[in-house]
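Input record (one chain):
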Amino acid sequence: MAVSLPSFADAKIAIIGLGYVGLPLAVEFGKQRNVVGFDINAARIQELSAGRDSTLEVSPEELAEATSLSFASEESALKGCDVFIVTVPTPINGHKQPDLTPLIKASELLGRVVQAGAIVIYESTVYPGATEEDCIPVIEAGSGLRFNQDFYAGYSPERINPGDKTHRLPNIMKVTSGSTPEVADFVDQLYLSVIEAGTFKASSIRVAEAAKVIENTQRDLNIALINELAIIFNRLGIDTEEVLLAAGTKWNFLPFRPGLVGGHCIGVDPYYLTYKAQSAGYIPDVILAGRRINDGMGAFVADELVKAMLKRRIHVNESRVLVLGLAFKENCPDLRNTRIVDIVSVLESYGVSVDLHDPWVDAKEAKHEYGVDLVDTPQQGDYDAIIIAVAHQEFRDYGVTKIRGWGRDNHVLYDLKYLFPQSETDLRL
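The corresponding structure, as predicted from the sequence alone:
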């Protein structure tokens, strides 16, 4: 006989992983019910306990509003929780295959702390089937409990957009699912208590997993198309933005722009789907082609800059280039999977000395993650070329005159993000 579900009104929640996804969720739930925010990073727990979020997703005021939220890095704090929500990263490895290590470790942790009747909900992006095929068996092995008899599962994919102050957790519709109809109802009602935009209850965990992974795959392919068009228009001597603005006058033209595709989702999630597709005997040619195009844009940008420098008779070897921006997107400190490092790597292969300036990024994190040093204040007249790689508001505020002032008398200004008019730059993507 199956164990009963926990009391909805009194259910105590544990959030496993307090990054860009887990912390906002913990805060919203912590405004109305008992929540334990758990993370293995003790320094992260320390800063959150002090009322500070280094990701800038949650303000000190919002943290203070979550009066029923506590933080911990010790497993013992998870004992007695009824609902466990897993929000750990799901990266790819060096072979561009899914790396489930954080997810498996979180599942091993759950195997040590879950009790009969508990519900485990995963939010991490995975391929269809990962929750029930890869994670649940780990919990069963560690706990001795039986799935859908002694404990239950759900899946509700995250939809957090780092740095976006308009689309926040409460006003983004949430997809939910559960391992039984009763669990699906419980999970759906749980999220409805904090999601003002409402929920969509999927028919199964696999459907919810698949819905998440195609959201970013679709966006990745759209950007890949525009990137390929930018490469074509570059060869034809046509300004890409002018073409996109003209085409955008049609009501159903999608407003995508070319650029580097990084971050924790768009540049990663398609590989989860392609991995699963290939394991099922199907080669997803279109998705992989889009990935190849987007993964190659850093090298394309670097090569185009070198060509422009040579046309200006600027000696490339031992030249100095300033790259403005290291974060994977504008107005955000998130460095995950940033493709700016691809530009840096290719330029350095030409013998170029590259300086990076990003007012949003923590210098210690940049050094730890990518081995690069940030420049606090670029020097006047110091650079042979300048690349505007990220559309931070600060760079707009600097203005093109100040940015050009960092270049030598003969330099190239490459504006990847269309921050300034074509007439004020030398090169655009």
